[in-house]
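Example 9 (inverse folding). The structure is encoded as follows.
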C-alpha cells in the first residue's frame, strides 16, 4: 500500500505543514507521458475553462495560467514536450513557510492555496523549488494548480486529464500510477521524473532517453525523424530553438540569448536527455 505523505509529514515535522482530507485519504497522482504528448495544449485550455480563467497567455505561468507546455513554441513545432505545473510535493516547502497557514497538503495529494487566507507575502513563491507559484497583480494573492481538488473530493479526475485527446495524462491512486509510470518508462528505455526530485510528490513525468527519442519523434514529427534517419540530434537542437526553424553552430551570443529566453526548468526537465547546452552545441557542429 502506498505511504500516505501526510502521515510522514506529521510524524517528522509535527504541525509544520497543515494537512487535511478531501475524500477517502488515499493518495493520488497525475502522470504525464512525454512519449504520447502532441503539444496541443488542450490541457492548458481545459484548466483555464474549469477554473474560469481568461484565455490569455499560454506560454508563461501566471495567476490565470497554471500549466505550460515546454518549450514555449507553437503547437507542432517541437518533437518532444514537457509539462510544467505544480508537482504537489510530499513535503511542500511553500506550505511550511506560509506564516498564516494558507496552504494545505491533502491526504489525497493536492497542495492547495486558500486565497481567502493568503496575505500575499510571497514566501511560498520564493520557497517553491519548481517556481510554479505566481501572484495575482490585482488581488495580491498567490496562485497555482490545485490538482482540481474540488473534483477529487467528488471522486473525479482533474479536468486537464479528462481533456487530453491522446491519453498523455493519467490519474489514479499513487501506487498504481507509479507502477504504470515505471512500466511505460521501461518500455521506451526512459525514466520517471518526480518520484524523488525535491523530495518527491504527487506528479510524475515520463521522459524518453536519447535512444528512444527517434520513436517519440516519429509520432510527433515524422518528417523530421525521417530526415534525421534515426539520429535525434536535429530534433534535440530544434527543441531548444525558437520554432525549430534553424540548425547551426551554437555561438556564444546564441547560447546567452537562448539561456535567457528559456527557463532553467527546461534544462532541469531534460537533464537526462541533454545534459547541457554544450552537448547540444556539439551535436549541432556534427550536423554542420
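The amino acid assigned to each position is listed next.
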Amino acid at each position: 500500500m502506498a505511504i500516505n505523505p501526510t502521515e510522514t509529514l506529521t510524524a517528522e515535522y509535527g504541525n509544520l505543514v497543515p494537512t487535511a482530507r478531501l475524500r477517502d485519504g488515499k493518495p493520488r497522482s497525475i502522470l504525464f507521458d512525454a512519449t504520447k504528448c502532441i503539444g496541443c495544449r488542450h490541457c492548458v485550455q481545459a484548466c483555464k475553462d474549469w477554473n474560469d480563467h481568461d484565455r490569455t497567455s499560454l506560454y508563461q505561468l501566471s495567476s490565470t495560467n497554471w500549466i505550460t507546455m515546454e518549450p514555449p513554441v507553437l503547437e507542432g513545432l517541437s518533437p518532444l514536450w514537457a509539462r510544467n505545473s505544480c508537482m504537489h510535493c510530499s513535503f511542500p516547502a511553500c506550505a511550511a513557510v506560509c506564516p498564516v497557514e494558507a496552504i494545505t497538503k491533502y491526504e489525497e495529494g493536492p497542495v492547495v492555496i486558500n486565497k481567502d487566507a493568503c496575505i500575499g507575502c510571497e514566501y511560498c513563491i520564493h520557497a517553491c523549488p519548481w517556481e510554479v507559484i505566481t501572484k495575482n497583480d490585482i488581488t495580491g494573492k498567490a496562485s497555482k494548480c490545485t490538482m482540481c481538488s474540488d473534483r477529487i473530493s467528488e471522486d473525479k479526475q482533474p479536468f486537464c486529464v479528462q481533456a487530453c485527446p491522446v491519453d498523455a495524462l493519467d490519474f489514479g491512486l499513487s501506487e498504481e500510477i507509479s507502477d504504470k509510470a515505471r512500466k511505460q518508462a521501461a518500455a521506451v528505455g526512459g525514466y520517471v521524473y518526480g518520484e524523488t526530485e525535491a523530495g518527491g510528490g504527487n506528479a510524475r513525468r515520463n521522459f524518453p532517453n536519447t535512444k528512444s527519442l527517434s520513436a517519440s519523434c516519429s509520432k510527433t514529427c515524422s518528417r523530421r525523424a525521417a530526415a534525421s534517419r534515426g539520429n535525434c540530434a536535429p530534433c534535440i537542437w530544434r527543441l531548444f530553438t525558437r520554432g525549430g526553424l534553424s540548425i547551426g553552430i551554437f555561438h556564444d551570443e546564441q547560447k546567452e540569448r537562448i539561456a535567457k529566453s528559456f527557463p532553467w526548468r527546461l534544462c532541469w526537465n531534460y537533464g537526462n536527455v541533454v545534459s547541457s547546452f554544450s552537448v547540444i552545441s556539439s551535436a549541432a557542429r556534427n550536423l554542420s
